[in-house]
Amino acid sequence: MNARIDERNDGLRSGAEIPGGPAAPATPPAKDASVGALLKELAHEVPSLLRKEVALAKSELRENLDATKQGLAAVSTGGAVTLGGFIVLLLSAVYALSNVVQPWLAALIVGGITFLIGLAMVGSGKKKFEAQSLKPDRTMDALHKDKAALQERTR
């Protein structure tokens, strides 16, 4: 293992490029290089730098997307397990209530209450999807103020 580390360190000392890190200049600038030569070298290196920056951004986005996919899978699995637990809890509520009333009536009561709670949750969630709630009110107000200010300045 130490030999592998030494090889890597030797590679770094010899000017090898670090993966994901800044690239070593293609040609070391001469001490007495003219301004034209320096500008020419700069013109060759800037596009390369931009390509590497774009590649780095793509790589980071891919990594973030993969992490998001893994998180979504975990949340989905957790939601499915939670749903199973909720169903068992509702069933236990039916069993407990069946000690007081008939089993069919206990199931009807628990199912009805759960249904009403679900309807209330769907109704409140539905309001968030209405067109009026999606309208960017603050942005629209700021644009109207900007428009009014520009109209006053042009008068």
TrEMBL record:
Residues 1-31 are annotated as: Disordered. This is Phage holin family protein. It holds the Pfam family Phage_holin_3_6. It comes from the Bacteria. InterPro entries: Phage_holin_3_6. The lineage of its organism: Bacteria, Pseudomonadati, Pseudomonadota, Gammaproteobacteria, Lysobacterales. Keywords: Membrane, Transmembrane, Transmembrane helix. Residues 1-11 have a biased composition (Basic and acidic residues). Residues 15-24 have a biased composition (Low complexity). The chain crosses the membrane at residues 72-97, 103-122.
